[in-house]
Amino acid sequence: MTEDRVLPPTLELDDVSIRYGRHWAVRHASLRVASGELMALVGPSGCGKSSLLAAINRMTDLLSECTITGDIRVGGDSVLDAQVSLPQLRRRVGMVFQQPNPFPLSIADNLHFPLREHGIARRERREQMVERALRDVGLWTEVAGRLDRSALTLSGGQQQRLCIARALILAPDVLLLDEPCSALDPIATASVEALIRELKGRFTMLMVTHNLAQARRLADSVSVCWVEDGCGCVVESGGTEHIFTTPSHPVTRAYCQGLAG
Ligand SMILES: Nc1ncnc2c1ncn2[C@@H]1O[C@H](COP(=O)(O)OP(=O)(O)OP(=O)(O)O)[C@@H](O)[C@H]1O
């Protein structure tokens, strides 16, 4: 996040299926997030949205019962290859969760930690990067005088912005957001939404949300997931206005008008 750079790469899922043991959670899901765009992934509970996000940064590797087929590419590079280094992949693909989850460390150490882990040893360099990251998420003026205080003393919205700073401080290409505002009150939600809007163009983002109004406010494109024959699938993807005003699939029409789901 801290360096000027060329456009971020595209994110592509091609015929992705995800199985937990014998249960297919997702079948044949394909979608494409264009460079620097934000795609919202919407759909009812259990249609596989979080599973798709977890597959992209290979968090699913932690689950012995989980099998993924198909192809997932970041900037054309396949992320599912066995040779892919997971630390490098997670550096390229940052993730923000529903519940703000700062480490139980100081505000500054939440950001020094990933920098140290990735070999940035010089404290002075790290301090510059920490300040820039906090400025980027609009937190610097709020926390500059108390960087050594516990991150857990921040409000929910401040904690989530700190978590976004932590996800972005290593300059990922792609940012995955799993219902980033659902645990926040309306004022904190507005500040996190404003931040996400500012990040558009600089990162390629895929955001799960149950909030259709939020998807409409923020996203450039929308993918609608559904459960068919017990498995999650993507029924339709398209530009946000198309999905909300002239959807092609009857499920999209019903879901986006609040008639189903
Ligand atoms: N670790 C797991 N082990 C077994 N089954 C799982 C696991 N994680 C998810 N599932 C199953 O996969 C399916 C999709 O779940 P997932 O959490 O991806 O859906 P979702 O659309 O994100 O739901 P929600 O909106 O409620 O978060 C569900 O049937 C769920 O029970």
Automatic annotation (TrEMBL):
<keyword id="KW-0067">ATP-binding</keyword>
<feature type="domain" description="ABC transporter">
    <location>
        <begin position="11"/>
        <end position="256"/>
    </location>
</feature>
<dbReference type="Pfam" id="PF00005">
    <property type="entry name" value="ABC_tran"/>
</dbReference>
<dbReference type="GO" id="GO:0005524">
    <property type="term" value="F:ATP binding"/>
</dbReference>
<keyword id="KW-0472">Membrane</keyword>
<dbReference type="InterPro" id="IPR003593">
    <property type="entry name" value="AAA+_ATPase"/>
</dbReference>
<protein>
    <submittedName>
        <fullName>ATP-binding cassette domain-containing protein</fullName>
    </submittedName>
</protein>
<keyword id="KW-0547">Nucleotide-binding</keyword>
<keyword id="KW-0592">Phosphate transport</keyword>
<keyword id="KW-0813">Transport</keyword>
<dbReference type="InterPro" id="IPR003439">
    <property type="entry name" value="ABC_transporter-like_ATP-bd"/>
</dbReference>
<dbReference type="InterPro" id="IPR027417">
    <property type="entry name" value="P-loop_NTPase"/>
</dbReference>
<dbReference type="InterPro" id="IPR005670">
    <property type="entry name" value="PstB-like"/>
</dbReference>
<keyword id="KW-1003">Cell membrane</keyword>
<dbReference type="InterPro" id="IPR017871">
    <property type="entry name" value="ABC_transporter-like_CS"/>
</dbReference>
